[in-house]
Design brief:
Layout lengths: L1 H25 L2 E2 L2 E3 L3 E21 L5 E6 L6 E2 L4 E5 L2 H27 L7 H34 L5 H29 L7 H22 L4 E3 L4 E5 L7 E2 L6 E16 L11 E6 L6 E10 L4 E4 L5 E12 L13 E18 L3 E4 L2 E8 L2 E12 L3 E6 L6 E3 L13 E2 L1
Parallel strand pairs: 1-21
Antiparallel strand pairs: 2-20, 3-10, 3-15, 4-6, 4-9, 5-8, 6-7, 8-10, 10-14, 11-12, 11-15, 12-14, 13-14, 15-19, 16-17, 17-18, 17-20, 18-19
Helix pairs in contact: 2-5, 3-4, 4-5
């Protein structure tokens, strides 16, 4: 009797264990799920911008030399056309006087030629000496014009003068080269006992060429007075610290007020989705309440720079400029240096299905999501779209109303397992 009781108890235990195992294998798994519905999805980033309502213009002179006079002071407001400083034009005056002397020499040569045109007894050696002196003068003139051309080309490369001045300087060098060649040819004619006829015309041509050089130098005289091209406030006056003015160093920096621009730096990871002309949301924080308005992207730099994040980490960011539109709000004062919150909408679409990133896993190159069908888990292959901050857009594989398991890495998941959400 006792043995039968023991056998019965043993069988009951075995049945209980088997039932427990069976239940654990077939019982619904409790796991978090979510229902997917069509909605508006967007990818948004928020950055801090700064208002810039002024620009700085550096004023470079078009001439160089000893400083003669400074006509303004730091902090002074100037108008376009005001004289900032004056450079001593003494060297230019000396050069013009030297060229005037050259013309007088050519005129003397003409008078000599006319006086001797009928004198067949002019000694050839005297004419050779005169011609050699003329050649030496022409060589010096050519050397000076080449130096002038070098200075003009340097200024053009710096963007200080237009190309027309370079072309004029090159034409002057060509004239000097031609004059030198003619004087050397004339020397050969004199040496051969010829060339008395035609010398008057030759010297007259040299006079005209030299007069052109003097006219160019006279036109350069205005460059010795440095004029402000813009209206604004002088915020820097380096010319006060020097006795010599150089064309490669600014004499002043003028701050010019402009229409307010908001500058913001965007990460290189997000900049591909930012376009000129895009609208952005702007917010100006104030104690009496935030003011919200809009703006439009007007410029995006072509290169990134290194910026420090709020945590002191170096990041590569691109400067973006935004033109604010405050016409829809009142009382907005965007002073220079004000902080403005900028909200970029990088991506936005209507009627899209999106699932949490935790709902996705991959099998090789296949993207899979666990979906609850008829109360059991089923693997569904999907085609993904834009990756948002916490969600991923699903383009194909799901329909509105599908129940998606949000923990794709749950160890209890397998095809056909019962799910209790």
């Amino acid at each position: 009797m006792k043995r039968i009781v023991k056998i019965i108890i043993f069988c009951l235990v075995v049945l209980a264990v088997a039932a427990g195992i069976y239940y654990s294998m077939t019982a619904p798994v409790s796991i978090p799920t979510t229902t997917v519905d069509a909605k508006t999805v967007e990818l948004v980033i928020s950055e801090q911008g700064v208002v810039s309502s002024e620009s700085v213009v550096s004023i470079y002179p078009f001439a160089q030399g000893p400083l003669q006079r400074v006509n303004v002071s730091k902090g002074q407001t100037v108008r376009a056309g005001d004289v900032l400083c004056e450079i001593d034009p003494g060297a230019l005056h000396l050069r013009m006087e030297e060229l005037s002397g050259v013309i007088r020499g050519y005129e003397a040569q003409i008078r000599l030629e006319r006086a001797q045109v009928n004198n067949t007894n002019v000694l050839t050696n005297e004419r050779l000496n005169l011609q050699n002196t003329l050649i030496e003068q022409n060589e010096r003139d050519l050397e000076r014009t080449l130096e002038h051309l070098e200075r003009v080309e340097t200024l053009f490369e710096l963007g200080v003068i237009p190309r027309s001045e370079v072309d004029a300087a090159r034409d002057l060098v060509a004239d000097r080269q031609s004059a030198l060649a003619m004087s050397r040819q004339e020397l050969s004619l004199i040496d051969a006992g010829r060339g008395i006829a035609g010398m008057t015309e030759y010297y007259q041509a040299l006079i005209e060429s030299t007069a052109v050089t003097i006219a160019i130098l006279e036109s350069e005289m205005k460059n010795y007075t440095v004029i402000s091209p813009v209206a604004g406030v002088i915020t820097r006056l380096p010319v006060n610290d020097s006795n010599i003015v150089s064309m490669t160093t600014p004499v002043a920096e003028i701050t010019v007020p402009e229409e307010a621009i908001i500058e913001v730096f965007v990460s290189t990871q997000d900049i591909d989705n930012v376009r000129v002309g895009d609208s952005v949301d702007l917010v100006l924080n104030r104690r009496d309440g935030d003011i919200r308005f809009f703006g439009r992207i007007s410029h995006i730099d072509s290169a990134a720079g290194i910026r420090l994040s709020a945590l002191g980490v170096e990041e590569r960011r691109v400067k973006v400029q935004i033109v604010p539109d405050t016409s829809s709000v009142q009382g907005v004062d965007l002073g220079n240096g004000f902080d403005v919150g900028v909200r970029f909408i990088l991506y936005r679409e209507e009627n899209k299905l999106a699932v949490p990133r935790t709902a996705l896993f991959s099998d090789g190159n296949i993207d899979i999501i666990w979906v609850v069908r008829d109360g059991t888990a089923r693997m569904v292959e999907v085609t993904l779209g834009m990756k948002l901050r916490t969600e991923i857009v699903v383009e194909e594989g799901l329909v509105a109303g599908d129940v998606v398991i949000t923990d794709a890495n749950n160890s209890a998941l397998k095809n056909g397992v019962a799910i209790r959400g």
